[in-house]
Design a protein that fits this description.
The chain has one domain: Gcn5-related N-acetyltransferase (GNAT) (Aminopeptidase, 3-Layer(aba) Sandwich), CATH 3.40.630. It is globular, with a radius of gyration of 16 Å. The chain has helices at about 15-25, 40-55, 105-120, 135-145, and strands at about 10, 60-65, 70-80, 90-100, 125-130. With about 160 residues, it is an alpha+beta fold.
């Protein structure tokens, strides 16, 4: 990165790093809660654990972003995941998280570039993801990376 800051590198996770990624995902899970929803931290933790188990049972890659030799974020990529409408296989970003104090320094962008490269290497021609409406930074990143809105999920209180 500019300004003499260390650059972010991305690599495949090493044995044992899934536990670190899961712990980070649980710590920042509240960032994924849409503005119209309320969720207890314990329930969020259970659902993050379920997501990791779901991914573990499928073809996936866990990518780790490092800065100055320390892990600062991760991306959990599903490979050959069927698109929800067409059923055609695609790469799918199941979860991406960056340590809060390390955000806006290029880690998520580097993770996305590495995930796209890995998906292409695996023969995928499409990449999908879901982003929470209130997550402005993530939405701006995905817009900058040329992701388009394919579908919109709507909800209302009853």
């Amino acid at each position: 990165m500019d300004g003499g800051q260390p650059s972010v590198t991305v690599r495949a996770a090493l044995p044992g790093e899934e536990a670190w990624a899961l712990a980070l995902a649980i710590r920042v899970a509240g960032d994924q809660v849409p503005p119209a929803r309320d969720a207890a931290p314990a329930l969020l933790a259970i659902n993050v654990e379920r997501l990791f188990a779901f991914c573990r049972a499928r073809e996936h890659r866990l990518l780790i972003a490092e800065e100055a030799g320390s892990a600062v974020g991760f991306l959990l990529l599903l490979v050959n995941f069927p698109h929800e409408v067409t059923g055609l296989p695609e790469g799918y970003v199941a979860y991406v998280a960056v340590e809060p104090e390390q955000r806006r320094r290029g880690a998520a962008r580097a993770l996305m570039a590495a995930a796209e490269a890995e998906a292409r290497r695996c023969g995928m021609s499409q990449m999908g993801l879901v982003v929470t409406a209130g997550n402005v930074a993530a939405t701006q990143l995905y817009d900058a990376l040329n992701y388009t809105t394919e579908r919109t999920v709507r909800c209302k209180d009853l």
